[in-house]
Amino acid sequence: MLVEAQAPSGSGADDPAAPPTRRAAVAALRSLGLLVALGVLVLIALLSVWVGTRDIPFTSTWSVLWRPDGSDAAVIIHDYRIPRTLLGLLVGMALGLSGALMQALTRNPLADPGLLGVSLGASTGVVVAIAFLGVGSALGYVWFAFIGAAVASVVVHLLGSAGRAPATPDRLVVAGAAVTAVLYAFNSAVLLLDPRAFDKFRFWTVGALAGRDLGIVQVVLPFVVVGLVTALALAPSLNALAMGDQLGRALGVNVGRTRALGALSVMLLCGAATAAAGPIGFVGLVVPHVARFFVGPDQRWLLAYSMLLAPILVIGADTLGRVIGAPGEVQVGIVTAFLGAPLFLALCRRRKPATL
Amino acid sequence: MSAARKAGAPATATTGRGAPVGATKPRVVSGRVVRTRGGRVSLRVQGRALAVTSVLVVALVVITGVTLTTGDFELSVGEVLRALAGNGSGGADFIVNTLRMPRLVTALCVGAALAVSGAVLQSLTRNALGSPDIIGFTNGSATGALVVIVVFHGSMTQIAVGALIGGLATAVVVYLLVFGGGMQGFRLVVMGIGVSALLLAVNSYLITRASWQEALEAQAWLIGSLGNRGWDHAIAIGVAVAVLLPLAFGLAGRLSMVEMGDDTATALGVDVARSRVALLFVSVALAAFGTAVTGPIWFIALAAPQVARKLIRSPGPGLVPAALMGAVMLAGSDLAVQRVFSPALLPVGTATGTIGGLYLIWLLVTESRKSRV
């Protein structure tokens, strides 16, 4: 869906000196692109409802989608596939936006909730809640996932920026890996020592959309909405910050407030996504880069595109996992890693200073 | 090479004491040179290296003793020795020779293998973080081993071969990815972390394809475990170590020259490209065989060589102390998880993973203090 055939540098598009007609044309083209992305998202969602382990012909899928008649097909679609698709939509939006926000706030092209230990922090929160506090409901998990995500991201950033050296992307990635190693070992130990908790944790396990009901969607929805609104409202300030804090201040941005709100939004989105579906890696890393390829560095467009492209990836990966894994399925987190890791490596190989 | 070995032949010490090695002063060759009478064999012996090595050997003996005598059934040293000699009572014989000994031998050999693998690789990449567990070789070996376990239900030997193929393939991929940018710096590490993440996804996928019982076992295996290790495991890793460690020690001299830089090494008469390939192969093979037996164990390969190096303050990669340090660390960690969390069966990888992450954090903080990234 190459609707933008313009240079990814974004030069000229947002240049106030560019002729107004050209700017209007670019804006129109990008809006059209958003509409196309929305169309693709709807199609993917329909595909996700239609495709599965049980073959249901498209015509009957379409009819029971609107008129549930109590048949097997209707039960499968309404009790299994629709919640799953909605969850994918929500989780995708949250992950894509939090990744784009992270990359903008840290000016780090390699930022991703999974790589920077935020997802595992959320997992650890859930493990602690289950094993030590006997929390059993999804609503309970969410809070602990938030706390875990917050603590882990703060720790990783402190480590990455420790000492006199600046917090380079590379150092943050290594700090993320270190924190992840500790948390992973801790989680494994706790779960292996407590079979009861392991049994509960297993259904929450590695990034999957299966086996969740609509309840979890309702639980995390408010958090995701607050995070989304906060993130989108921050977009203009993020543009001003792209040149560095000092210039941002000169342009009238309250830098501290923007950073704090941005971090809060990342934690809300990331915590909600992880609490709902378990840790799903690489979505937050890959999607903003794809979006940047289409619309360049303008954060307003970038966030909007990330928000639509990420659920396409998540729901698509989930559907793909059901197709290639039939009669079982491949968890969505595994599929996204397969799609995302090569891109991560390609980015590392290029290592041009990122245009953020 | 600063391995503290005594020359086998009657030796006379000659003078050759260098300046004491300070933390800030440039590295100077230190120690005493020991030569045979004809001068055909000469060795540099450092007091510090000798002391550290001796302490490690003592620690090994202590850990061995404690592992074999304590546990659910207390045995006296005499009972253990009799059982080892093959004339102990039935119970003691079973506990020592079937339960405790193979596990201990496995731990010691895997620890030594991982540590030497890490020492060689860190030296080749000139990077403290360039160890097989961080840059994905261990995960690659695990992938190869898992394919054999899950898909082919292979024997121990086949699993080891699978792990070797997986590790080598990963090494080739990582090498090609960083090719042109040099094997140095954080770039290699970040690339390795990316490759690692991908392989972790592959491993999780392989586990989901396994049956439920297999999946539980594989899950414990994936974090690195020494539980239920019998003589077939111990012998497999023992043979690998017996073959590969001497190879590594034999290449150590070239390794310390390659560490000085390609030009220097070439001027000193070392075929850099060939040495590098040989060393890389030995390093990957050691990590792969260790992983085949226990699963991907974190931290030993990363930390053991560096801790040994810091203790000895040696300028070069001291492989012998590193091997001893690795053996002490893994056997010690295993002893700890067996006794502290008893009766629960915690995989040893949970202990090494925790310590390893913390060590990595400490490394990051101190490196940034020096501002040398």
UniProtKB/TrEMBL annotation, chain A:
<dbReference type="InterPro" id="IPR000522">
    <property type="entry name" value="ABC_transptr_permease_BtuC"/>
</dbReference>
<keyword id="KW-0472">Membrane</keyword>
<dbReference type="Pfam" id="PF01032">
    <property type="entry name" value="FecCD"/>
</dbReference>
<feature type="transmembrane region" description="Helical">
    <location>
        <begin position="32"/>
        <end position="51"/>
    </location>
</feature>
<keyword id="KW-1003">Cell membrane</keyword>
<keyword id="KW-1133">Transmembrane helix</keyword>
<feature type="transmembrane region" description="Helical">
    <location>
        <begin position="117"/>
        <end position="135"/>
    </location>
</feature>
<dbReference type="GO" id="GO:0033214">
    <property type="term" value="P:siderophore-iron import into cell"/>
</dbReference>
<comment type="similarity">
    <text>Belongs to the binding-protein-dependent transport system permease family. FecCD subfamily.</text>
</comment>
<feature type="transmembrane region" description="Helical">
    <location>
        <begin position="266"/>
        <end position="290"/>
    </location>
</feature>
<feature type="transmembrane region" description="Helical">
    <location>
        <begin position="86"/>
        <end position="105"/>
    </location>
</feature>
<dbReference type="InterPro" id="IPR037294">
    <property type="entry name" value="ABC_BtuC-like"/>
</dbReference>
<dbReference type="GO" id="GO:0005886">
    <property type="term" value="C:plasma membrane"/>
</dbReference>
<feature type="transmembrane region" description="Helical">
    <location>
        <begin position="172"/>
        <end position="193"/>
    </location>
</feature>
<feature type="transmembrane region" description="Helical">
    <location>
        <begin position="142"/>
        <end position="160"/>
    </location>
</feature>
<dbReference type="GO" id="GO:0022857">
    <property type="term" value="F:transmembrane transporter activity"/>
</dbReference>
<feature type="transmembrane region" description="Helical">
    <location>
        <begin position="302"/>
        <end position="324"/>
    </location>
</feature>
<protein>
    <submittedName>
        <fullName>Ferric enterobactin transport system permease fepD</fullName>
    </submittedName>
</protein>
<feature type="transmembrane region" description="Helical">
    <location>
        <begin position="214"/>
        <end position="235"/>
    </location>
</feature>
<keyword id="KW-0812">Transmembrane</keyword>
<keyword id="KW-0813">Transport</keyword>
<feature type="transmembrane region" description="Helical">
    <location>
        <begin position="330"/>
        <end position="348"/>
    </location>
</feature>
Automatic annotation (TrEMBL), chain B:
<keyword id="KW-1003">Cell membrane</keyword>
<dbReference type="InterPro" id="IPR000522">
    <property type="entry name" value="ABC_transptr_permease_BtuC"/>
</dbReference>
<dbReference type="GO" id="GO:0005886">
    <property type="term" value="C:plasma membrane"/>
</dbReference>
<dbReference type="GO" id="GO:0022857">
    <property type="term" value="F:transmembrane transporter activity"/>
</dbReference>
<protein>
    <submittedName>
        <fullName>Membrane protein</fullName>
    </submittedName>
</protein>
<keyword id="KW-0472">Membrane</keyword>
<keyword id="KW-1133">Transmembrane helix</keyword>
<keyword id="KW-0812">Transmembrane</keyword>
<dbReference type="Pfam" id="PF01032">
    <property type="entry name" value="FecCD"/>
</dbReference>
<keyword id="KW-0813">Transport</keyword>
<dbReference type="GO" id="GO:0033214">
    <property type="term" value="P:siderophore-iron import into cell"/>
</dbReference>
<dbReference type="InterPro" id="IPR037294">
    <property type="entry name" value="ABC_BtuC-like"/>
</dbReference>
<comment type="similarity">
    <text>Belongs to the binding-protein-dependent transport system permease family. FecCD subfamily.</text>
</comment>
